Amino acid sequence: MKHPQGAYTIHEGDVTPMIDMVFQLMAFFLFTLNFTATDREERIQLPESELARPPESALPFPITLHVTKEGTVMVWGEELGISDLGGYLVREATALTIQGRPLTDATVIIRGHKDTLTGKVQEVIAECQKRKFERFVLRAQERVGR
Fold first, then answer.
1. Alpha-carbon distance 93 to 131, whole Å?
2. Residue 138, class by beta-carbon neighbours within 10 Å (0-12 exposed, 13-18 middle, 19+ buried)?
């Protein structure tokens, strides 16, 4: 479109709605992104195994327990003795019951430090079994290129 003096008119668009939408999308993805913080306990060094493989799919109701070198259990950053684990497991079982799901939907993921005594991991499993949990997964670090 020509201006009366012969120059062209420049039409500028308002980019404010676009910037607003970008920030909303960023916020949405940050809140919905699963960082799997429960699998990121720095004090736990997993043992290496040639048989270890990454999980093929997400578990429907994972309960992650980190067994430290000293034989205590880390749950959401809180360190518990194995005998104190029962209260946490009861809360998890209650959460499943409230959702109308059976305890068989839960999978207890045990991430034991590579120097943890095997007996301590067995005690953790026994404590979980007392609370009627049946499915267990032991985590190890995949040994690559050796």
1. 8
2. middle
- Rounded CA-CA distance 97/82 in Å is 23
Q: Would you give the DSSP letter of residue 39?
A: G
Q: Is 112 among the domain residues?
A: yes
What is the domain range of residue 102?
Answer: 37-142
Looking only at Cα atoms, what is the longest distance across the chain? 90
Does the pLDDT at position 139 exceed 70?
Answer: yes
What pLDDT score was predicted for residue 38?
46
pLDDT digits (tens, 9 = 90+) for 8-63: 677 778 888 888 888 888 887 776 665 554 445 566 766 666 666 666 777 888 99
Count of domains for the chain: 1
Burial group, residue 84, by CB count within 10 angstroms (0-12, 13-18, 19+): middle
